[in-house]
Amino acid sequence: MTTPLSHTALHDLSVQELTQALQTKQVSAVEAAQHFLQRGQAHAALGAYVDTNTDATLAQARAADARIAAGTAGALEGLPIAHKDIFVTRDFATTAGSRMLKGYRSPFDATVVDKLAKVGAVTLGKLNCDEFAMGSSNENSAIAPMGSDSVQPVRNPWNTERIPGGSSGGSAAVVAARLAPAATGTDTGGSIRQPAAFCGVTGIKPTYGRASRYGMVAFASSLDQAGPMARSAEDCALLLSAMCGPDPDRDSTSLDVPTENFALKLNDSIEGLRIGVPKEFFGEGLSADVRASVDAALKQYEQLGAKLVPITLPRTELSIPVYYIIAPAEASSNLSRFDGVKFGHRAKDFADHDSKFPLLDQMYRRTRAEGFGDEVKRRIMIGTYVLSHGYYDAYYLQAQKIRRMIADDFQNAFKDCDVIAGPVAPTVAWKIGEKSDDPVANYLADIFTLSGSLAGLPGMSIPVGFAKADADKGMPIGMQLLGNYCQEARLLNAAHRFQQATDYHLAKPAGF
Question: Which of 14, 98, 141, 191 does the annotation list as catalytic?
Answer without folding.
Answer: 191
